[in-house]
Amino acid sequence: MTDLRGFSAEMTAAPAFHDLARLAAILCAAPAAYVALLNTTQQWIIGAEGMQPATLNCPREHAFCDETLARDALTEIEDLSQHPRFANHPLVTGEEAIRFYAGMPIRSMTGEALGTICVLDHVPRQLTEAQRDGLARLATRATAELELRRQTAELQGMSARLAENEAALRGLNESISLDYRRALDVMTDGVLAIGPDARVMTVNPAAARMLGIDAQEAIGQSIALLLSERDGTDDFIDAVLAPLQAEGPQGRRTLDFPGERRLSVEASAWRVQSGPFAGRPAITAVFADVTENERLQAELASQYTQLQDAFLKLENSATRSALITRRIALLRMAAVVAAFLGVFGVAAWTWFSPGEPDAFAAGAPGGVVTMTASAQPISARIAVVGVLEPGANVSVVAPYDGTVRERLFRYGGAVTQGDVLLRMDRGEVETRLREARAAEIRARQRVEELRGWATGFEASRARRQLAGAELETSNLRARVQQSAMLLSRGIIPAEEHRNLIQQQRNQELQFQAAQQDLAATLDRGNELHLRTAELELANAETRLREIENDLGNSELRAPVSGVVLMPPENQGGQQRRETIEVGSRVSRGQTMFGIGDLASFLVRGQVDEIDVNQVRPGQNVTVTGDAFAGEVLTGRVASVAAQASAEQGGMGRGMPNFAVSIAITDLTAEQRARLAVGMSASLAIITHERDDAVVMPPNAVRDEGGTRIVRVREGGRIVSRPVTLGISTPEGVEIRTGLSPGDVVVLRE
């Protein structure tokens, strides 16, 4: 037995069941009929004809219908007075004097027994076959009616829940709209939204003020009509509608607007996600009044041009200084060549001279000339010209693309860590920040909409349409079944039945369309769309944080203490270095200037390819200069380039040069006071130095079988001794191994 708690009194209290009872009485030619539902303990009447329902309501064990449900088939009792169970029933023995009973079970759509449809008579009798068939059809109709009532109640409950969800969704949308409106109201840029019907959807106070319109009156009107009375607004309207024109200019545009103003306009298109215009394009335009900004930029550009002219004159002076430095380098090279030729000439004269050495040799019997080896200091140096640079240099880069609004330092001036050095213009960044915030709000609204999509407006609308189509389809099915029975009895014409069948087919098509519409609507809020919206929201949040960080870096402070230095030269040194001035345009990551630590210095110079292999990091260097005359500084080689420099003679232009860096540390306060970045310096790199070297004249060294030897007196005889040669000096050749101080060397035998 099916649980009948799902059938409420409102569901069963319907005239349709009384009509079924009346049809049963007419069909079976009986004075009384009724439709009853039974549970495990009770029978109650939901439709009756010829008797009061209260008369038939009774406990189940007293109900005639219990016998029908027990047999689970059509049950006929020809004479109740002879029935062993009902012979003493009050309706049989009382004034009603019921004698005949016939009942047909009413089953649910799943086949479970719910109740019966019955007929009663005062005389014993039997039903005809036609009456039995008709009673079975009426029982089927009662089943359809009960199922229809149950589904209707479920749909009504679902509709009530959907109405509650819609009310909650409307409240959420109103809250989001209020937050969005507040954000628009505080923006200094104008925001204008135009719907798919070409009418204004949104206009914030800033936009209304710039356009000279009333924000309230503008809603729902065409933008062209709003601005039609003012000349010179065509460019603005074209810029707003540009996203819809594939061949028109896209992106941000700056244009003239009535009132001698300049507006910077950027418009973007988007598609409406819900409502009657779903899928159609709409436009959001963001614009700002840049009249004052352009005027200031023009003034700054004029000042910048004047500064460029001044620095060009300075650059010409620097070029002349570079030419002088190059001439000095050429003279130095000529001096080195002359010194080498002089040493070579002295050595040749000494070797080929027929006379005896009179400065260092001693005569001996037999014409032998000797010389006693002694220890003496020697050294080899390479002369280099360089430029002083700070020992440590921290570059300060631009935080974002923009212009410099205020410069608070001077080049060459000292700064302390944390000092404000310059302030960047915030106008462009603030515009991008507002655009990023608007994009983040739209992305967040989209995510919230998709997260509640299953219970949102679109899904609720599709469910209501499906519920209505399902209800109408069920009703038509029941009506078709009823009309078929009535047609078989000749009660209605065949044309009416065919019309109902056609209506049923059409309604089933509408029901299928409603199912497909609901599935498509729910699919628009699936995990893929939600994930896409969440990724777009994450991108919008990241972009917003980046721009907020840029805005926070608009004020640049000194990262370390030191002296502000000029920005680095461009690649190759072919273009002059540009200083940062008020109004200068900089790019993100561009090095604007450096802060140098002058506690120590670096000297950078160039060594040609002939000398570079003699230079090693760690070698001692003496540093002198005309700017700090009388001061001899000491340093060490910090680095030697492994690749030829692109400057001057390097990289295929003349003799290749290699960059060397000399570190000068441990300076006194007086020494630091005399040094400045950019001063020229003369370097003497000590490539070889010994305090106890043995130096012999070139003619003391001989070649014997490919081996360098010297002739040494040992006791009373002269022997050959192999030696290793070192560097050549004006005094002679260094003997590194093979001789010791005190040895007597034979110069000539």
Q: What does this protein look like?
A:
- The protein is an alpha+beta fold and 749 residues long.
- Among the domains are: 4-151, Beta-Lactamase (2-Layer Sandwich); 187-289, Beta-Lactamase, CATH 3.30.450.20; 314-396 and 594-749, Beta Barrel (Elongation Factor Tu (Ef-tu), domain 3), CATH 2.40.30.170.
- The chain is 40% helix and 28% strand.
- It has a 6-stranded antiparallel beta sheet with strand order 3-2-1-6-5-4, with helices on both faces. Strands 12, 13, 26, 27, 28 and 31 form a 6-stranded antiparallel beta sheet that branches. Strands 14-21-24-23-22-25 form a 6-stranded antiparallel beta barrel.
- A hairpin with an 8-residue loop joins strand 22 (620-624) and strand 23.
- Helix 2 runs antiparallel to helix 6 (129-186) and helix 6 packs antiparallel against helix 13 (457-488).
- The longest helix is centred in the middle third of the chain and has 62 residues, at 291-352.
- It starts with 8 loop residues before the first helix and ends with a strand.
